[in-house]
């Protein structure tokens, strides 16, 4: 089984599979009638919802409740596991969240996937399902999603910036793009987002930077691509946000930092 379309008519309350996508693949906006736990084994991906986006790398997981409209954009070749959870299970109404995947959670996911989809939900599998949902709820959140505004004019600006994080055009340009005076733009942005435009754009850049460095791109190249004059100023900004140097994200150097 590789896709939800392959599900039997009456699947067990938890069912999953492992899969891989090539870099650049976009799984367009869609929903599931079950909660979705994704565990990422290799590569990086950006998962977008109506209210924001998450950028994830190896060792991280994402929970989306049932009926959440979402899209996945593979930034590199991607290997992952997915478990779909029936919303009737106690605790499966959790809001979207991103977290580091514990050893216990990975073992539970492996066990569910190994059972394919034709197993009986006996006492053992029921216990595994309950424990998995509990682990999702207990997992400490990391890298909260990048929020988007509700105002369509501001959202248009934010989507343009996330598409080109290295764009250095100033706030006056973006206010004009939104069809607003600068003061109106800054006031509305602060009201909707709880932070200023400059702070939000810096957050876009550090999330983009973390994804690129984790995928193997050099720090100097990332700094230049994202509009920084040199790697030193970029590293200072990165450390201020994450509390660690960007070199800690290089493949094989340990767990991802927490903003």
Automatic annotation (TrEMBL):
Recorded superkingdom: Bacteria
Record SMART domains: HTH_ARAC
CDD domains xref list: cupin_NimR-like_N
Domain HTH araC/xylS-type: 155-252
Cleavable signal peptide: none
Keyword terms of this UniProt record: Activator, DNA-binding, Repressor, Transcription, Transcription regulation
Short name of one Pfam family: AraC_binding
Keyword Repressor set for record: yes
SUPFAM superfamilies referenced in this protein's UniProt entry, alphabetically: Homeodomain-like (SSF46689), RmlC-like cupins (SSF51182)
GO molecular function: DNA-binding transcription factor activity; sequence-specific DNA binding
Protein name, UniProt field: AraC family transcriptional regulator
């Amino acid at each position: 089984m590789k896709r939800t379309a392959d599900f039997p008519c009456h699947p067990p309350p938890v069912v999953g599979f492992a899969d891989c996508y090539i870099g650049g693949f976009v799984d367009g906006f869609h929903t599931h009638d079950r909660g979705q736990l994704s565990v990422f084994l290799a590569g990086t991906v950006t998962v977008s919802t109506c209210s924001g986006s998450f950028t994830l790398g190896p060792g991280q997981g994402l929970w989306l409740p049932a009926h959440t409209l979402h899209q996945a954009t593979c930034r590199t070749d991607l290997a992952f596991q997915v478990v779909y959870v029936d919303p009737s299970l106690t605790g499966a109404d959790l809001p979207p969240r991103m977290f580091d995947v514990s050893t216990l959670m990975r073992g539970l996911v492996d066990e569910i996937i190994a059972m394919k989809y034709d197993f009986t939900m006996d006492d053992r599998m029921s216990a595994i399902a309950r424990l998995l949902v509990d682990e999702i709820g207990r997992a400490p959140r990391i890298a909260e999603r990048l929020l988007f505004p509700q105002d369509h004019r501001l959202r248009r600006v934010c989507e343009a910036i996330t598409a080109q994080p290295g764009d250095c055009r100033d706030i006056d340009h973006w206010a004009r793009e939104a069809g607003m005076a600068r003061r109106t733009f800054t006031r509305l942005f602060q009201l909707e987002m709880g932070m200023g435009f400059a702070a939000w754009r810096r957050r876009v850049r550090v999330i983009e930077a973390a994804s690129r460095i984790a995928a193997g791109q050099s720090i100097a190249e990332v700094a230049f691509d994202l509009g920084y004059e040199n790697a030193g100023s970029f590293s200072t900004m990165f450390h201020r946000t994450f509390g660690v140097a960007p070199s800690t994200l290089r493949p094989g150097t340990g767990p991802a930092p927490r903003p």
